[in-house]
Amino acid sequence: MNRTLSIETIKKVGETVKLNGWVNNRRNMGKIAFLDLRDRWGIVQVVCVPNELDEKSQAALKDIRPEFVLEIEGMVQARGEKQLNKDLLTGGVEVLAKKIAILAKSETPPFEVANEERQANEELRLKYRYLDLRHERMKKNIILRDKIIRGIRDYLHNEQFIEVETPFLSKSTPEGARDFLVPSRNYPGKFFALPQSPQQYKQMLMIAGMEKYFQIVRCFRDEDQRGDRQAEFTQLDMEMSFIKEEEDILSITEKMVKQVIKKIGGDYQMTFNKFPQIKYDEAMAKYNSDKPDLRKNKDNKNELAFVWVVDFPMFEYKEGDKRWGAGHHPFTAIKDKDLSKLEDKSKM
Fold first, then answer.
1. The predicted structure's pLDDT at residue 323
2. In this structure, is the dihedral angle defined by the CA atoms of residues 278, 281, 285 and 290, taken in order, positive or negative?
3. What residues make up the domain containing 27?
4. How many other C-beta atoms lie within 10 A of the C-beta of residue 46?
5. Closest C-alpha to 24, from 99, 126, 115, 154
6. Is residue 224 part of a domain?
7. Does one domain contain both 140 and 261?
8. What's the pLDDT tens digit per position in 197-219?
């Protein structure tokens, strides 16, 4: 018998199914036990009546606790009117268990998985990350990320972009932060650098005639941790040939963002139909931030206020290193009005 997903049970009333999943919760009512079985698609209630189970299953039922991994065979049946659970997609059905097998036992978890109201501290959650990812909220975050990445790929492929993977081990190049270095086994004393961005590779692709490139790429920067700065992160990397104006890049990116938001669904609303543009100096003077929150309702997490902050300074003072360094990668088109400064040494 093939496995049935929890969400598929709503269309299989009267049929025998096989379920696999984790015990989200157990409730005992006399001799009858109710198991909430969880898989990636949801939760389905399993009714365990001793007289309906074989001897092996009855013995297994006595030991079952939350987070045990089970395989259950049983009959899908409709719930009575008073037993409906409108909070679950499967709340109109339940499975009457006939066979129960324990695939993996679980020790008592260090924090509750079923009850997200009781949040453990971050250190404990990260120590047991595989358990933390069982939380419904964390699962939804990962699924949302997947939808966003899929939406980006669909849009850019439709715009004739080519997705190309570039190397991770390469020569160190000038960027805005320190490199992570990897020692070379074949050349003692020599080092590879993990890329802060695929900048040089994508420029090579433009020279090669690819014209439109993108990549969902992992980047590495050896810098102090902050809320918006991590040692490794994922970014959308793009490059296009024959672009005459900055507006061409902003336009294709803005259209992509709007389409992705539309595709992922949800209750998101955008503050601006056309993304406004603010210069860096104006943003810092007016909002004291280079990423101002322009939402009308600051308490509405579903309101999205995208804004282009342009004309970032090329250099910034690195307090930790006591030096001036690139504020972002230096492979940036120079404004036409500043081209003459390249030849005037007094302005350099």
1. 81
2. positive
3. 6-104
4. 23
5. 115
6. yes
7. yes
8. 898 899 999 999 999 999 999 99
